[in-house]
Amino acid sequence: MANLAIEMIDVYKSFGKQQVHSGINLKIIDSAITVVVGPSGTGKSVLLKEMLGLIEPDSGKILVYGENITKMSKKKILEVRKKFGMLFQNAALFDSMTVFENVAFPLREHLKLSESEIEKIVVQKLRLVGLQNIENKMPAELSGGMKKRVGLARAIALEPEIILYDEPDTGLDPIMKDVIGNLILETQEKLEKTSIVISHDIETTFKIADYVSMIYEGEIKFYGDIEGFKNSDNQYVKQFLSGSREGPIKIF
Amino acid sequence: MQKFFEFFGKPVIDTMHLAGGLIVLLFDTIKWVFIPPFRFRLLLKQMEFIGIQSLPIIILTGAFTGMVFAFQSYIGFEQFGGEYLVGTVVALGMARELGPVIGSIMVTARAGSAMTAEIGTMRVTEQIDALSSIAVDPKQYLILPRVLAGIIIMPMLIVVDVFCGIVGGYFVGVHILDINKTLYVENMYRYTDLGDLYNGLIKAVVFGLILTLVGCYKGFYTTGGSEGVGRATTESVVLSCVLILIFDYILTALMF
Questions:
Q1: Residues of chain B that touch chain A, judged by Cβ-Cβ distance less than 8 Å
Q2: Is B133–A109 a contact, with Cβ atoms under 8 angstroms apart?
Q3: Nearest residue on chain B to A90, judged by CA atoms?
Q4: pLDDT tens digit string along B8-52?
Q5: Do B130 and A84 touch (CB under 8 A)?
Q6: Does residue A188 sit within a domain?
Q7: Contact A181, A152 (CB under 8 A)
Q8: What pLDDT, on a 0 to 100 scale, did the predictor assign at position B139?
């Protein structure tokens, strides 16, 4: 079996009375793209935040390269987080800084580089996501698609082992969706890292996924490679792929 | 019966929750004072924001407080021929009480509210999570510089505030109310000492801590989008002002 980047074992989480995760078991294969699909509001974003240690599960283990992060000191978690890069749903750019400062931020924080080295890396990362000559703009001046690309440049600035994408294609037009999908694939090919993508878009999933995991009602209802996902007999998967109202996934 | 307990119990539990939250945040933040990296640039930026940018409003409120106080105390003293004590009362009142309290409330309105709004917006737009995801502790990056800046800069602001109050009081007392200049100044010197100012400065340090800590706390735990940011900002200003008044009483009683 391939190496595991992340393993979640029996993870439970609830916010107040609302149970979000009721026993999540999930394996993320190293150096591959895993797409996590599922209807809106099923705790997919929470899943990513748990992997980063931003949200602590009520019980269960989360292993990142074999190390359990749920019982870790804050200082050690900060070290583990350096292995991660995350693209947030709305990019979450620091709005008091320019595009350049945003992408340079992780470099300045964690590496001792000269200004010219930082500039070189920032320009190179922005090129990688298809942007140039916008270094001095403020995030408020950018379109949604550009923000996401700057967010991605920031996420990969430190060349992390694991890149998390929280709904990278939501709210984009079909062309930009395709661009972002290609970007994830290209980034994966160039950096050969592990990617975890949250999506509810079937096209994107088919395009980029090596492995697919489907989450519903706080549990993993399906896990397998992309071919297995396409041809699955699983009732949940079938309903999701056909976009039908009828099936085990309830609308209310 | 259950309603009865709920009615009286909820405020008690909420207050305990709030006090606990503030104290935990305080200790979480203080811990970072000793752990590198030290962010002097952010500290200076916050000192500029809380301090320098508050100067105009502090000069204005200080001067007007002193001027009004001179008028009001004159009414009382004039009845038994004690006008020449107006200077003493203005200086004592400004240094021990009015300077720190009114000054801090003005800074709360200006800088405390802005802190909550800024940090709250960062929370609801996931910028705080983004900081964490880059392996930067948001308490160390956002809260520590603000709290330190508040503690350092508030006493300095209050010195300016008190000075302006005394000048304002002198102007009204000597030039408008025609109190004898020499008696005014002489009595002011005789009945006040530096201890009165230190008293006010201790208050200023505590109020600086309160207004920055509350401002950051309310921002840091904001929920509910832009409406939530608005609500948090209001709560932050009200809570800071209430706490400043409560601690003013406690400190006055202790240092009496």
A1: 37, 121-122, 125-127, 129-130, 132-137
A2: no
A3: B125
A4: 888 899 899 999 999 999 998 888 888 888 889 999 999 999 999
A5: no
A6: no
A7: no
A8: 92
**Do residue B130 and residue A88 have CB atoms under 8 angstroms apart?**
yes
pTM across the whole model = 0.87
For A81, name the nearest residue in chain B, comparing CA atoms only. Answer: B135
Among all residues of chain A, which has the CA nearest to that of B136? Answer: A78
The H or E element that residue B15 is part of is helix B2-31
Does residue B109 sit within a domain? Answer: yes
Residues A75 and A10 in one domain: yes
| A90 close contact with B: CB closer than 8 A | yes
> What separation in angstroms does the CA of A93 have from each of A142, B139, B174, B217?
11, 18, 57, 22
- What total number of domains does chain B contain? 1
Is the pLDDT at A47 greater than 90? The verdict is no
ipTM of the complex: 0.85
The CA-atom distances, in angstroms, between A249 and each of A37, A66, A204 are: 13, 34, 21
Domain count of chain A? 2
Task: Say yes or no: A166 and A77 in one domain.
Answer: yes
| Residue B25 in domain | no
Residues 6 or more apart whose CB falls under 8 angstroms from that of A100 comprise A119, A122, A135, A136
Res. B4: pLDDT tops 80 = yes
Q: State residue A252's pLDDT score.
A: 58
User: Is residue A88 situated within a structural domain?
Assistant: no
Nearest one of B121, B239, B18 to A95, comparing CA atoms: B121
Domain of B228, in residue numbers: 36-255
Helices (H) and strands (E) in chain B, counts: 12, 0
Domain hosting A60: range is 1-83+162-183+194-252
Question: In this structure, are A217 and A101 located in the same domain?
Answer: no
Domain shared by A121 and A233, yes or no? no
pLDDT digit string, tens, across residues A132-155: 888 889 999 988 888 888 998 999
Q: What is the mean pLDDT of chain B?
A: 93
B130/A109 touch (CB, cutoff 8 Å), yes or no: no
A70 and A173, same structural domain? yes
